[in-house]
Write a structure and sequence with these properties.
Layout lengths: L1 H17 L4 E3 L5 E8 L8 E2 L2 E5 L6 H34 L3 H31 L49 E4 L2 E4 H16 L6 E2 L4 H11 L28 E4 L12 H9 L6 E3 L2 E6 L4
């Protein structure tokens, strides 16, 4: 019974302490506290004559101000709880006749004092080392914008550029050097010499490279609509097979080639040309997308 009464008193004390934090709406985005809280600082922090009566959460530094006000409040709560425990221990010490009861009362008083000293000591030590440690200033934090660029992922054999559409005249939006047609395959001028050298070396080794490179923006958009239920803007759209957004495909930039197998269809992992490319393409600046034996680009994407 005594223990239940004690817990009830603790609960009442906590409700009384936290009641001032409960807020009621006011105009201008401010909140009126049900009871003023002791505070330090000037009027710009909402502290008037040492009392805080309103709090504006819409200010830029509102979270930092709130945390700064909560630290002394929590220390105050610790002090009140310590006093309650000391009073409880004193009552128990004076009203009991048993040695164990008096020992328990003394232990309660000792623990309350140690807990209060621990809370105050931590604050004093941190404040002595550097007072700024106890001040939370979040106003200096800047809002950051994260841009996620979706690179081309595996597009599947159904999307392979096995028939080259030819080189458009002049530079394109994604290839300033202009698209060049080499051995029936259109690539960006920035990689044209590398592909020309690779084609010559492959031919000497008995591998005739065939396929398609450049894909126009219109072709990429049409492919995206076909495979992604008409979507051409959402990078998280459900596409079967996966299809890059217009402007993201290495094919649209003229920086990727899908090679054709001599036996028909896309190049297979068992074809001689694939073996030759694996061992020699990197010398010419081309890398394979591991999930697609036919797809080779400047970065393997």
């Amino acid at each position: 019974m005594k223990k239940s009464l004690f817990y009830i008193l603790i609960l009442i004390a906590l409700i009384g302490l936290l009641a001032p934090i409960i807020k009621t709406g006011a105009q201008g985005g401010e909140y009126n506290l049900l009871a003023p809280l002791p505070c330090t600082g000037g009027p710009e922090t909402g502290c008037v004559n040492g009392k805080l009566t309103t709090f504006d959460p819409s200010q830029q530094s509102n979270l930092g101000d709130y945390l700064n006000k909560m630290i002394p409040l929590l220390i105050g709560i610790c002090a009140v709880l310590a006093v309650i425990m000391i009073v409880k221990g004193g009552i128990q010490y004076m009203t009991t006749e048993s040695i164990s009861g008096k020992g328990a009362g003394k232990e309660s008083i000792k623990n309350a004092i140690l807990g209060l000293l621990l809370a105050l000591g931590a604050w004093l030590i941190l404040n002595t080392i550097n007072p700024n440690i106890l001040k939370t200033d979040l106003s200096s934090l800047k809002q950051q914008t994260v841009e996620v660029i979706m690179n081309e992922g595996p597009e599947g054999e159904a999307n392979a550029v096995l028939v080259d559409a030819g080189a458009p005249p002049g530079p394109t939006g994604s290839c300033k050097e202009g698209i060049q047609r080499i051995a029936g395959i259109s690539v960006c001028g920035s990689i044209a010499q590398g592909f020309r050298n690779m084609f010559a070396d492959a031919s000497q080794a008995g591998c005739i490279l065939m396929g398609g490179g450049y894909r126009s923006p219109e072709a990429q958009a049409n492919l995206r609509r076909k495979n992604c239920n008409g979507d051409t803007t959402n990078p998280n759209a459900n596409c079967v097979p996966p299809t890059a957004l217009p402007g993201r495909s290495r094919h649209q930039q003229g920086l990727a080639i899908d090679f054709k197998s001599p036996s028909g269809g896309a190049l297979k992992g068992t074809d001689f040309c694939f073996w030759w490319l694996q061992n020699n393409a990197s010398r010419h600046g081309f890398y394979n997308l591991s999930s697609e034996p036919w797809h080779w680009s400047i970065d393997g994407k």
